[in-house]
Fold this sequence. Notes:
The protein is an alpha+beta fold. The chain has 15 helices and 20 strands. A hairpin with a 2-residue loop joins strand 10 and strand 11.
Amino acid sequence: xxxxxxxxxxxxxxxxxxxxxxxxxxxxxxxxxxxxxxxxxxxxxxxxxxxxxxxxxxxxxxxxxxxxxxxxxxxxxxxxxxxxxxxxxxxxxxxxxxxxxxxxxxxxxxxxxxxxxxxxxxxxxxxxxxxxxxxxxxxxxxxxxxxxxxxxxxxxxxxxxxxxxxxxxxxxxxxxxxxxxxxxxxxxxxxxxxxxxxxxxxxxxxxxxxxxxxxxxxxxxxxxxxxxxxxxxxxxxxxxxxxxxxxxxxxxxxxxxxxxxxxxxxxxxxxxxxxxxxxxxxxxxxxxxxxxxxxxxxxxxxxxxxxxxxxxxxxxxxxxxxxxxxxxxxxxxxxxxxxxxxxxxxxxxxxxxxxxxxxxxxxxxxxxxxxxxxxxxxxxxxxxxxxxxxxxxxxxxxxxxxxxxxxxxxxxxxxxxxxxxxxxxxxxxxxxxxxxxxxxxxxxxxxxx
Length: 449
Ligand code: MV4
């Protein structure tokens, strides 16, 4: 096992990783920007190295500075967390060439899944259902029109280098399709330096279902059930739950089988997530694979009792998975609310500031992963998420009751947060029934006006 790990991240996930390391007897090195000097990850790690100024490009994305910190502190491995360098194949390669273990999958896995069209192609070849559409990158408009008429409108254009909803355009007819392709290509070139786009049948009322998997270096692959991440706004997830309220045991069997097939097909190793789109008829299709630990991994941890960060570290150290699929039990329902420093009454505008008063809920079934404290000045340079509030109950009704009273206990001022938004959602009949789609947030906010 590693004796010392560097955490190339900040905020709650840096703390989360430090906590896992402490319980494993692994020493930790925090890296931080000058804007994060007063942050808890710096305080709680055994050592801390400043890697640059506030701007992420000069600190948390600064590979040279991070590798220097790793050399100076003599660590054996680097955990990238989520965001920042977590899905950067080049960074994983540099770690490898410096003989420092990158705690995550191989650079090849990261690179393949970063190319959305290539990822989709491997999945189709592995027999994982994929969304009907173009088999290749779109390079001429007549071909695109032909495909669109075969699969029927509406269609969606996606950027090959996109992901997470960036660079997407919907079209309802031939004329709009041609302009959508041009806009999508221009946007893709500007955002990702790659103008490649592809075309798919567009589903109007999808649900976002993702399956957590763990794979070791010895071809053991298991799944830890699904998460429902349908409650999003502008591709930012706001609420996640596991299990999904719309998946029965039969569908769960099929979708988790497909996820394992997907991971096997690419020889995946580490923790990973296969994202599926679920349509209103119960058909599911591969969307993307995330080759990192995700924000919402907590809900899976609550229902399975498995510490995903520890498993990720053990896998990277070459350990075998210590359990089989049959050992995995799913217990109850867990729901996560992302608490962001955003004003839900003002278009979710970020509003960083200093937290003067803070009271976090507790009691039965509550878990909070957060890096903020009373007196903390939230730096304006990074992600707006300041806490994850997770409720774990014996069933969905129980988890909802726990979340409702926890949201009522949560006091944070004067910073505006998404807590009032979550209180509204947890009183919304559609949410309470579990029959919501990706348009839920938009529709709910309109009704409020
Ligand atoms: C789609 C889609 C409808 N049809 N693809 C959004 C994130 C990225 N992973 C893919 N996304 C979508 N792809 C087809 N063919 C609708 C979305 C989508 C969405 C998906 C899941 C959860 C929320 C969403 C919000 C808007 C659009």
